[in-house]
Amino acid sequence: MLKIGVLGAGHLGKIHLRLLQQSEKYELVGFYDPNQENAEKISKEFGYKHFETIAKLIHAVDVIDIVTPTLSHYKCARAAIKSGKHVFIEKPISNTVAEAEEIIALAKEYNVKGQVGHVERFNPAFIATKNMIENPMFIETHRLAEFNPRGTDVPVVLDLMIHDIDAILSVVQSPVTHVSASGVSVISETPDIANARLEFENGCVANLTASRISLKNMRKSRFFQKDAYISVDFLEKKCEVVKMKDAPENPGDFDMILQNAEGVKKQIYFSNPDVNHNNAILDELESFAHAINTDTEPVVTLEQATEALRIAYQIIDCFKK
């Protein structure tokens, strides 16, 4: 089993600690949190070993799980990688693209693996449909959340929209050629609502909306491609696929047939792929263990996470124009 330690014991850090304690792929050695009072409370309540310094924790493990505020991702990753440790980093990979690129360079130099916590890649509804998403030409995403002060230290693009940026980049195998966006600050110092349009070299267009001051929670994506429409509800973990095929000569009474202006008839049929419910956070952590143990590429690489961050900052730059 791989020995792992967690940096950061806030809301998400505590979830990681609990899941790693349950995992059969890792041995949870302990954690570090700069808030001594919080660290002692967690250690006493759950029995996790609290390390006095980051350096001592890094020395005791094979893998470091970085669940600290984004501003400290680079510093923590740098320390771990330079000690020859593999790193799992919560999204976004770092605060700047330059920091992310240095993390990539360091990981190559010290021959360690890195994975970033873009957890929606492990959402069971996305997993159930991903192989059906083939060359989408229009994508629409809505990620709406009720207001929560946690996370408002960064723009909504880095807090919420980056999930959808990463998911889109994982299915559109073409470079982004143009980005346009608008954002509005309502409560926070940075935009709370944002809309972005990504245009790809192959002609695909993606329209993304994110809000953290919504009256309801929503996390939906729709993918449109030739003869198919695929809907993924990341929140409810449901999906639907609507496909079209040439209509039979003698359709049945209950067949749904459409005829276009040219007289071409298509039959529409619906399917709801099986969704195998999982714990996405545990799955992403254990997939990283698999990548380390088999010396294979992680599901969400440092390079992919850096590209998502790069696009996110191009969107944020549009707000300043």
From TrEMBL:
Which branch of life, at top level?
Bacteria
Q: Which GO terms describe its molecular function?
A: nucleotide binding
Residues of the GFO/IDH/MocA-like oxidoreductase domain: 156-216
Gfo/Idh/MocA-like oxidoreductase N-terminal domain location is: 2-118
Q: Which PANTHER family match?
A: BILIVERDIN REDUCTASE A
Stated name of the protein: Oxidoreductase
